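Sharing a chain and its predicted structure for anyone who wants a worked example. Both blocks are below, sequence first, tokens second.
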Amino acid sequence: MQRTYQYEVFPFRPSPEQRTGQVMRHPVIVVGAGPVGLTAANDLVRQGIPVVLLDEDDKVSLGSRAICFAKRSLEIFDRLGCVEPMRRKGITWNVGRVFFRDQEVYRFNLLPEEGHAHPAFINLQQYYLEEYLIQPLRDHPLADLRWRNRLVGLEPGEDHVHLTVETPEGVYETEAEWLIAADGARSTTRKLLGLDYEGRLFQEKFLITDVVMKTADFPTERWFWFDPPFNPGYSALLHRQADNVWRIDMQLGRHADVELEQRPERVLPRIRAMLGEDIDFELEWISIYSFHSRRMERFLHGRVLFVGDAAHIVSPFGARGANSGIQDVDNLIWKLKLVMEGKAGPELLESFNFERTRAAAENAFHTETSTEFISPDTPGQLALRNAVLELAREHEFARPLINSGRLSTATVVPDSPLNTPDRDPFTGGPIPGGPATDAPLTRAGEPTFLLKQLGYTFNGILFVERPEEIPEAMLADLQELAAQEVPIRTRIVAAQPPAQAELQGIPLFHDVAGLARERYAAQPGAFYLTRPDQVVCARWQRFQRNLVEQARDRAACLVR
């Protein structure tokens, strides 16, 4: 098989514990160097928290695995300073097409409007994503990457977790004030703690292949087939990746022989039937999967925090696995930082459990219903599905009923305990518990985007017509909020172009296309408060300092 990616072997180095023979206590240890664990490590060091990262392997992932990374994940990687190589290498797409047999029945655009820094999705092989997340950690003074370090023992305590780690040069003991378990669906951490991982197994089997096609003329879109001529009675999926690699998924049925169907002599005719005899291709990776929909009841267990597949796993339809895990980390790290600094109470970490178990339940619902549409259990369900597909050819009302995977979006948690409910009327805009919306801005004539200005602290967004109309007393309040122990740093978004880049130390931006005001349903004077993970926690039609402070204190569970 062809290999378009050259794997680097990361060297094993004895840990300081092995060199000194002492048990050391670290602020945070992350177990698992997949996309989620690496995102956690990058977020920790960006916020000034030392991290030890343990992984039992010495290479990035074998095969492309997770490839679809959603707009919200790209916004998170942007905040972490990792997104540019991903965008350069990845394949951008917004459009998907659905086919029934040999005819197109539905076409959708996941991001039809302009004025966003990032597309709906990029396709990028997981090994590249991991490489780009490892790079900023390799020489970072706060990051200790430990390859071929396998967790074999775990003893939780009141103020720390004691770990036993196996390496090529023996076993050592170490401790963590906090342990983040990002060690995947077969999580050793979860098993060592004896925790349940409940849900259901889907019996349907799918062939997943990466093929290299240098002359393919398929557009850069997501194509999904129901009952195509080249795989009758089943489904198929086609995605383009970097390096002229194309991902092909083919449904094989519940009784497929896993060993037999992975043999090249079985795979090649299937791919030729799909692509046509004129397309030259080479196989790069072959796998067969069945999938689970499982999750833990709680993601927080004392000093151990579970993220990604270690906490929840879903079917691949909708690209909700890795993207959800990345959002777990985005939700967690700022909260952990405030708790570690003694500024927030333990209920702030409990809110991580509250918000992300709800996200996991939402993802499970969407992926399970997608799976049931793609692979109906009964003849009646199959007939109903095919009727929907037939109707969708001519009738628009049927198209939203097609479910080839409800693609990943950020979860909104309107009942989060961190939210301050609206007291002022809004006719739109992101609600408390939902992610802030992006929009193009300029600062001193230089283009930027709103979300690039938010992060790592609580942020205020003040919408005005002209900055010079802001009362002096309000400016003084905004400056004092920025100087507090848990600061709120405000950005002023003006309808008219400001004459300068800041006003008394507060950054000024021009809503050059009017999209920020539109997307936030913001009249002059409106004020939004966002958390460090760019989630809106409160909003008002008029700024009042005491209300803003109360909302911040609620969202941060501040200790007074």
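Comments welcome. The chain has 14 helices and 27 strands.
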